[in-house]
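Per reviewer request, we include the raw input and output of the structure prediction for the construct analysed in the revised manuscript.
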Amino acid sequence: IDVDTGDVVFEWRSLDHVDPSESYVPPSSTEISGSGEDPQSPWDYFHINSIDKNQDGDYLISARHVSCVYKVSGKDGHVIWRLNGAKSDFYLDGFQFSFQHDARWISDDEDETVISLFDNGSNGLNQTQPHSTGQIIRINHKTKIATADLNLDPPFADGHAHIAKSQGNFQQLPGGNIMMGWGNDAFWTEYAGADHEIVFYGALGWRNVMNYRIHKFDNWVGLPLTKPALWTYSKHGAPGKPMYCYVSWNGATEIKSWKFYGSESKDGPWQVLAAVKKDGFETVYAHDDSFTWTYAEALDADDLVLGTSEAEKTFT
């Protein structure tokens, strides 16, 4: 899509190039496959989950339900080659992948292509290997053989190695480190150096949490278009009784402190209550006196105002 005009500049449909008989996910076999019996539940035989574009304008498409990666012409949409799946153009020498995500170009020319991907190895219904891995794959266009330069295993934790039945990603960092997100197993790992030493291992949660992808950007700055969120509570709502201010600003990375204000009128005058250091995602400030109205300012390291909440009436 041309963002400025909204014009469609390229469109590709899997049914024009890949027969549904190549799918490894039958109708009604998984929670996302669809039944194919009515328009409200179409059979998702292909399931695109990543698209990457190279300098020549050609596309690298990952299709989970056919366990295949395609190079597609950016000129006319024809399939230039297929890696894996039912009709692979290359022999996979000493490795395999299935139900993959996040296929990305590393290099591509007439003789050789190198890509990275996250190999799920499972879709929850079928499992082809003990755990998920991150792969760097080298494709030789002369010999028609693909080899794995890297097949990176997950750490072993909580009694198992990560097997992601959905989602997941592989990110190469500029300095050579690798970030791996373990999809529906909501952990991530950073590997360093030629021996891929684990230097960071974290989780969003151990159960009932999923994380589609994890990315690391050292210089990323978040300045949301929304306002900071403030909620103030006082059990008694009377002068001389304490109140508690809860403030956060989702996505803001530069906050170093919060300044709180109180008033008996929404229109002021306002009294500065305190400036307190930011403490995690949500900062809680306890004040020894109650005000009917409050608001908060987010301050950076130089005490400049980044954003201001709405004036909120104290909940009692």
